[in-house]
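[job 4471] stage=fold_predict status=RUNNING
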Amino acid sequence: MIELKDKKIMIVGLVCYKKELGASIGYIKALFSLKKIYQCKLIVFGNSMTHNLFRYCEYIDESLDLGDLENGMMQNQKLQLEIINQYHCDYLIASTAIKTHIRFLLSSNARYIICATKLLTLLSYRCKTVPIYFFNKYRNMRHEDIMLHFVRRIKPKVFDVHIASLDFKDSMLHVGETYKTRAQEFLLQSLESVRIHLAKSPKHSQNRDTTVLTNSHLPHLKSMQTINPYLIMINPFNVNNLFSLTMPYWLKLMEKITQIPQCIPLVVTYPQVHKDFMEKINHYEGNLSSLIVFANNDDILNLVAIIKEMSCLISPSTGSIHVASNLHIPTLGLYAEWDTGRWGTRDNRYVFIPDIKDKLDSYTQEKIITQVLDILKSMIESKAIDSIKIID
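[job 4471] inference complete, writing structure tokens
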């Protein structure tokens, strides 16, 4: 840990305005830098998702669920403000420049607010601002790097001296043993299910259970003889960004991936999409018998635990690809080209989508699938991705 001459422990809070996975992952470098550079007491004033997501991050002292800050009623805001004021923060970092949110933070007892430069923030002596809307250098800067400029605003000279020495590998998300075991057991069961189906017949039923394996099954599955596969996670779900494939072509991509030796596609669903997705699989005319589906609940750490075990993730610009980047899992993004500036991935490996999915014709989507498959094959050939190991 970096030694500072000032022995007074600062208290710094990051206030999460939106309940979004991608944005929350974008806070991680900033949070890690705050702790390592300033040795502060670090509080995340967030929501139910960030509370769970950061639960095992040792560089965060407390991760609180304040509810919905974006759409909260005034009664909730009063309670939220009371909780924030209990910490008597030296600095509160605002994750948005929306006026109502800045006014909310200015009503707290925090000494200073770190935020974007706007007219309101310029008029307050308590606001230390970053001019992210006024200079071109910020225009295509990644969200996570913009957040680092907010961290720098606290003590610029100290930040500049120490930022280069930080190893951000230490900022990777962690899950507890329960989540890790659950993910590994599920994958063992699923791989055995795929093996059995492939052994029975070249024409398989599309319907397979995705129940979690019990400990009593482990000795048999651990001893099974099989080639270590490449587990390719595919995320076809994207709520906030319409630059994506249509679902029939996502399914076609999954089928094509099953035809690459040793490759097994996997999809993680969540309650709002699971039923519809399974119906589309069951009505698909091709062969998706090797597809593994993990039916997640709303627990974000289940998703993190599964991604940790993957060989690669293929996804549009949305939260799961940012989780994979944080975990150093190889990624292939299906992106609008303009989106790579603010929300780019660690690998900078993309297939560009020219328009929103509802405007894509069959030829364009087939071309995108071909590009994805070519890149995936080259990643395997160049050993840019690893096959998974059967868990001992």
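[job 4471] summary: The chain has a mean pLDDT of 89.
[job 4471] exit 0
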